[in-house]
Q: What sequence folds into this?
């Protein structure tokens, strides 16, 4: 398996896992077990989620990111970094700068993965891969975390982000079983309530870690950013 195929596999597993779990539906309150009195923290889970929702709901933002992904069965780890933008509802734009330039773009309906070095574009329809609706994820519709996951504090898990006094750590278990996405860990800044790190695991214990840096909320981010014009003579591959 080439590094290009491996990297694309990491990306697709992460996005498909998140998009399959999260759907557009009415907000619900935290389950009772996640609302117990201020476990391991000076703030309750309900209060924390409310602060996070205020930061992200219906807002556009951009970040720099670091990513490390591991396929356990193959004992392969890949590192990458780049920049990304997100906009409600369901729109994402990822540019991988290393180990090679690559773009992942969705407007919530259509999906493009473009590798300039090969002049290759993989195209598909978001609903075909991301379930019904328009391909939302928690990064573009933050309130759906309460609907799609059972939320609790991280107590002791070897794959969770390390303990740090500057961050809250929460564990999110999908309410709908999905072997592609079994648990999500979030590390949240105690001062800003910005998401600092996320870790996802699948049923095979493959791990994807992403850290956000230089996070900026934007007053306006045009929808044109989340569409893609296929270059002339590009090799087009259908999902």
A:
């Amino acid at each position: 398996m080439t590094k290009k195929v491996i990297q694309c596999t990491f990306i697709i597993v992460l996005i498909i896992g998140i998009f399959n779990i999260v759907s557009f539906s009415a907000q619900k309150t935290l389950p009772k077990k996640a609302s117990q009195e201020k476990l391991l923290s000076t703030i309750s889970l309900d209060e924390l989620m409310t602060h996070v929702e205020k930061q992200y709901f219906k807002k556009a933002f951009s970040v720099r990111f670091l990513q490390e992904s591991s396929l356990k069965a193959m004992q392969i780890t890949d590192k990458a970094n780049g920049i990304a933008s997100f906009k409600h509802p369901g729109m994402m734009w990822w540019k991988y700068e290393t180990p090679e330039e690559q773009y992942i773009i969705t407007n919530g309906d259509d999906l493009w993965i473009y590798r300039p070095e090969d002049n290759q574009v993989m195209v598909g329809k978001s609903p075909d891969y991301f379930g019904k609706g328009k391909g939302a994820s928690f990064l573009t519709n933050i309130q759906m975390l309460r609907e799609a996951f059972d939320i609790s504090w991280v107590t002791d898990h070897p794959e969770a982000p390390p303990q740090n006094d500057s961050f809250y750590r929460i564990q999110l278990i999908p309410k709908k079983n999905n072997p592609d996405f079994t648990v999500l860990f979030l590390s949240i800044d105690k001062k800003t309530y910005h998401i600092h790190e996320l870790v996802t695991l699948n049923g095979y214990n493959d791990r994807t870690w992403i850290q956000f840096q230089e996070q900026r909320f934007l007053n306006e981010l045009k929808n044109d950013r989340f569409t893609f014009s296929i270059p002339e003579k590009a090799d087009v591959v259908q999902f």
